[in-house]
Amino acid sequence: MAVGTKHKGLTMNEDVSEKEAPAQELASDLIRLERNGEWEEIARLLEGRVLTAQEMAETAWTLYLNGAFESARHLLLPLEEKLTSPPLAFALAHLRLLEGDMSLAQRFADKDWHWDKTGTHAFAFQVALEHAFSESFLQLVERHELKTAEKLETLYSAVEPWLDGEKKPEHIRQLSETLLAARLDNEPCLLATTDKNASSECQTILERQAYRLEEIEPFLKADHKTILDIGANVGAFTFLAAQKWPDSRILAFEPGKAAFACLCFNTRKQENV
Fold first, then answer.
1. Using N-to-C axis directions, what is the helix angle for 134-142 and 257-266, rounded to 10°?
2. CA distances from 24 to 118, 131, 174, 230, 264 (A)
3. Nearest-angstrom CA–CA distance, 129 and 135
4. Could you give the maximum distance between any two Cα atoms of the chain, in Å?
5. Residue 178 to residue 200: CA distance in whole angstroms
6. What is the pLDDT of residues 115-165, one digit of tens each?
């Protein structure tokens, strides 16, 4: 007899069942069906299926990394009270946050997780940030759902201390081809970019390797100077200039729709832009 939690036709069994398909095979089917929007087929596939908690966790993780968020959430919800793996708890907090529920993200941030000494958790976080997290973050920015993107930024700041990397007061690192993590004045923040080239360019500018800012300085000594950033892309120079010269007014122009969305997000806190 199956015991445990049942969710939308899916039963969690504490005993291993040899009759069930491997987790990877189930994950592949669910990913394909979710990408095609075949929700009724997903329901039929899961109806009456029995999985162990480990199989549910493994399947959910694969689904999450491949962007099959709805199926991943269904498999993780029955495990919510049993999650001891920080990456899986992070994945569920991320998925619930996308639905507007911030409570799991706060619980994740507050919990004293047991980190192993091998660095496995940090590596799993890096993979999650590179794939599922970055993709959903950029989609939110491009849809101008900036409030939800800001909440994801808060969730990232709970993970950031556990990731490898330098802890300098000012440090920029690539999380993925579309997402930069910046630590400026010891405050972590995320910067959205459109692609690998924009991300690399953004990092170079923020690390002050692209422009000779000292040559611009003399022109800004008078009061009420205006800076025009024409072709601002995702806003790296605008972001840097707003911080370096807070008394100046910065007008940023960008015709590309996706880049403009990133520009709006990246400079949303700069009152002089």
1. 100
2. 25, 18, 29, 48, 39
3. 9
4. 80
5. 9
6. 665 567 778 888 999 999 999 999 999 999 999 999 999 999 888 877 755
DSSP string of 187-201? Answer: EEEEEE-SSHHHHHH
Give the whole-angstrom CA distance, residue 250 versus residue 236.
Answer: 13
Determine the number of helices (DSSP H) and then strands (DSSP E) in the chain.
Answer: 13, 8
Give dist(CA 120, CA 127) in Å, integer: 11
Instruction: Measure the CA–CA gap between 166 and 259, rounded to whole angstroms.
Output: 28
Question: What are 260's two structure tokens?
Answer: 């403009």
Q: Is 7 helix (H, G, I), strand (E, B) or coil?
A: strand
The residues with which 191 forms a beta bridge, in sequence order, are 180
Does pLDDT of 1 surpass 50? Answer: no
Is the per-residue pLDDT at 166 higher than 90?
no
Distance CA 62, CA 249 (A): 47
| Closest alpha carbon to 160 in 208, 126, 195, 201 | 126
Q: Tell me: the pLDDT tens digits for 32-62?
A: 999 999 999 999 998 888 888 888 999 999 9
Q: What do you get for the CA distance between the two ends of the chain, in Å? A: 63
Residue 196, sorted as left (phi over 0), alpha (psi -120 to 50) or beta, turns out to be: alpha
DSSP 8-state symbol, 219: G
CA 119 to each of CA 115, 162, 164, 175: distance values in angstroms, whole numbers, following the listed order: 8, 9, 9, 17
Amino acid at 35: R
